[in-house]
Amino acid sequence: MTPEPPPTPPNVDIPEDVPRVYTNFVLIKPGAMDLTIAMGHQVATNPPEWSVQATMSWEEAKFLIGALQTSINAHEQTFGEVRDIARVAQEVLARAVAQNAENSEEEEDRGEAS
Q1: Could you tell me which residues are beta bridge partners of residue 28?
Q2: How far apart are CA 102 and CA 95, in angstroms?
Q3: CB of 23 closer than 8 Å to CB of 39
Q4: Average pLDDT, whole number, for the chain?
Q5: pTM of the prediction?
Q6: What is the DSSP letter of 14?
Q7: Rounded-to-integer distance, Cα 100 and Cα 2, Å
Q8: Tens of pLDDT, residues 41-84
Q9: Alpha-carbon distance 2 to 51, whole Å?
Q10: What is the largest CA-CA distance in the chain?
């Protein structure tokens, strides 16, 4: 079965004065009638520096999910699978916890040997 190509986006010019931001940290704040997506940039364990918030209806959010999934599917067909950052973050955290436990045991061993 041949995958369906992504729809052609409308020819819309985005004005140059519309800010463009990089984000690697997203927070979703749901409400009864709409939701807000806050985006920012976070380095290491520092708090994120927030760049932008977008509030939209639930209907628009559902449309956004579909549009993002279509774009991701097309990207992955061309370039390969995109990493799941939630899984990567869990793996990094697990390694850090294991390393911390190992370091603590080494410190205890040194303390007992003194």
Answers
A1: 37
A2: 10
A3: yes
A4: 87
A5: 0.63
A6: P
A7: 48
A8: 999 888 999 999 999 999 999 999 999 999 999 999 999 999 88
A9: 39
A10: 73
16-28 pLDDT, tens digit each: 999 899 999 999 9
CA gap 58, 22 in Å, rounded? 24
Q: How does 85-104 read in b/e, with b if 16+ C-beta sit within 10 Å?
A: eeeeeeeeeeeeeeeeeeee
What is the token pair recorded at 30?
């749901």
Q: What are the residue boundaries of the structural domains of the chain, listed by start?
A: 1-82, 83-114
Looking up tokens 């303390």, which residue turns up?
A: 111
**DSSP string of 46-100, one letter each residue:** SPPEEEEEEEEEHHHHHHHHHHHHHHHHHHHHHH-PPP-HHHHHHHHHHHHHHHH
Structure token digits, residue 70: 């279509």
